[in-house]
Amino acid sequence: MRSLVFTGPDQVEWQERPDPKVQNSKHAVVRPVVIGRCDLDVGFVRGLAPMAPGTPLGHEVVGIVTDIGDDVHDFVPGDLVAVSAQICCGECKMCRRGFTGRCEAVPFAASYGMGRDGDFGGAAADLVLVPFADAMLFPLPVGANPADWIGFADMAQDGYRAVAPQLAERPGARVLVIGGAASVIGLYAAGIAVALGGIVDYYDSDTARLTEAKKYGAKPILRGNDEPEGMYEIVVDASIHAESILEAFRYAAPEAVVTSVCIHFGDVTAVPLMEAYHKGITYKTGRPNCRATMEPLSKLCCAGHFQPQLISTKAFDFNNAPEAWLDPAIRTIATKAAF
After folding, report:
1. What does the mean pLDDT of the chain come to?
2. How many domains does the chain have?
3. Alpha-carbon distances of 120 from 22, 128, 182, 318, rounded to whole Å
């Protein structure tokens, strides 16, 4: 089979790998019909995030189950599914607590396509082995357009965790999203916050992203031309620039929750702890627990309140996935014409 592989900055290619086989009673094999580039993939390809040449890529996938082990009870061949970006067993202490991004049954932070320990490969491939099928697969609604659900495996969950629990505690709160390198995640956070009743401002210097944010009902604020007014109970930092943390704390209201959905790659990043102390700010960082939030986010999507596909998407033929990974568009996918 083919697997999409990172070979160096701005270099991605298909390489041949052995076909995955069901070798365990909890395994399943999925044949992707649509794969998508994540914001983190952009960081890998552009050399912003470290990745070794030869590393398989991809963790946003929708596909069809082709084979299952004897102890897979929730899925059968032919099911259309989203595959969790993170490897999780669903049974360990961390998974039972909803911390599926920190599963204890696999090497810490094991995932598809991120160069992490565990040798689970990439999900941008002709076939994907799912080691814990019942725990990791998510059934798509009958009649769903697979392309509409790309981003659901990781990016949408990242946006959801940054605003949904916070808005449940603070209905109608003011929300600020500071846009940046986590482009799609920040936009998803804005759209989900609007869907959940938040009053959302989206602050960015990129006019294309500002246009996308407006589609979701967020108020666009152009950096350098204007700035956010007042303070916000919920702040989402979607920028890799260290200054964005300073901005996030500056605009945060007393007792606000600030969440970084990006990775700050510096060894030391300045955090204004004195300001945080006086305001009583809660600061959250780290990757989301993708599988744990799929059910509630799916309900929001199925009800039509949040539509991931509103973001302008550039679609490529599945065979041209390397071009999709290198394209400058905000959101790209590679899809098969016939499933």
Report:
1. 95
2. 2
3. 14, 9, 24, 21
